[in-house]
Design a protein that fits this description.
340 residues; alpha/beta; five-stranded mixed beta sheet; 13 helices; 10 strands; 40% helix; disordered N terminus
Length: 340
């Protein structure tokens, strides 16, 4: 009897301790319990960075706490502003977000820190033979919701008179063209490498940390061609500084500044896909919290101001969930492997 009573007391004490300990634990209703931080792993003023900062304006309205939109594309603490800074700059740029994704692994499940990812790190880089080994894997993250989808466009220095793939082949014959991309192992880098291979042309990739920086290199006459989002290239095309060559899509454009520009698929090539940028949490995050984040961001994406922004940026509002994101990653992996 004494043993039984002792056992009951033990259970009761344990229950009291658990209840006491859980008082400080954040419930799904209370999450995040502090400002959210959402990291864009690419350069400031890029398309995804602009989207991230615009969506962050609705943090308090939707989650009851501010959303802090930030960037991370330099290794934390490993390189300082010193004599060797410029020597390390080339290794810091063009990582396609891998630095930020590696840094993010320090966070635990259910944290108020989230990060944006794309198919670059999870479907392209791991399948490239010459890519560096990554310190993270897709399984280290919980995909939540796709924030935006975009189509890449290959543009050329207008002085070169390259307006389609036929004129590209004529100009490039016997030359090695410099092509600026947002990351040496990014999806756009893979697609243009494959395209040039199928065209039988010679090229050299020049990597930057973001498609906006790659486009700026073209405008600065540092390269012959660049790949960027359509919205980033729009002004340069309108001003006659650069010309669109091909869209990395199955079809071309029939209106607007890119009207008449064909899609890669129309030429019979298969190395193209949508560029999706999706929000992720740390692996193991409570499914109820994932659902809360999904519903919150989906509500933000339905705001009229956000719809107007996406229209101006030539982006697609495409709030697919984790299941559809998994499918997208699998499809891009298959496309990459089929075109190696």
């Amino acid at each position: 009897m004494k043993k039984f009573c002792g056992f009951v007391v033990f259970i009761l004490l344990g229950s009291i301790c658990f209840a006491g300990g859980s008082k400080n634990a954040i419930t799904v209703e209370e999450w995040p319990g502090q400002p959210l931080t959402v990291t864009c792993p690419w350069a400031i003023n890029g398309v995804v960075d602009i989207v991230n900062r615009a969506l962050a304006n609705y943090g308090e309205e939707i989650f009851g706490y501010p959303i802090i939109a930030t960037n991370d594309f330099i290794r934390d603490g490993s390189v300082s502003i010193s004599d060797n800074f410029l020597q390390n700059m080339s290794s810091m740029l063009g990582d396609g977000g891998n630095i930020a994704l590696t840094n993010y692994l320090k966070h635990q499940a259910n944290a108020s820190n989230l990060i944006i990812g794309s198919e670059n790190a999870f479907a392209v880089t791991p399948n490239l033979r010459d890519a560096k080994e990554q310190d993270f894997d897709y399984n280290d993250f919980e995909p939540i919701i796709n924030l935006c989808s975009a189509i890449f466009v290959l543009t050329a220095d207008a002085r070169l008179n390259i307006t389609d793939l036929e004129s590209l082949k004529s100009y490039a014959r016997g030359k090695t063209l410099l092509v600026a991309v947002g990351g040496s192992t990014s999806i756009e880098s893979f697609m243009v490498r494959r395209l040039f291979k199928e065209l039988g042309l010679s090229m050299k990739i020049v990597a930057y940390n973001g498609a906006n920086l790659a486009l700026q290199a073209l405008i600065n006459e540092e390269v012959h061609l660049a790949i960027s989002h359509k919205s980033q290239a729009k002004t340069g095309v309108e001003e006659g500084i650069i010309t669109p060559v091909v869209l990395f899509d199955d079809t071309g454009a029939d209106e607007g500044v890119f009207a008449g520009t064909k899609g890669v698929g129309e030429y019979g090539y298969t190395a193209y896909c949508k560029n999706r940028s999706f929000l992720m949490a740390r692996k193991g995050t409570d499914p109820a919290i994932i659902k809360k984040i999904y519903q919150g961001y989906k509500t933000i994406l339905e705001k009229d101001e956000i719809k107007d922004l996406f229209n101006n940026l030539m982006l697609e509002i495409d709030p697919i969930d984790s299941t559809a994101i998994d499918k997208h990653i699998s499809q891009v992996r298959a496309m990459v492997k089929a075109n190696l």
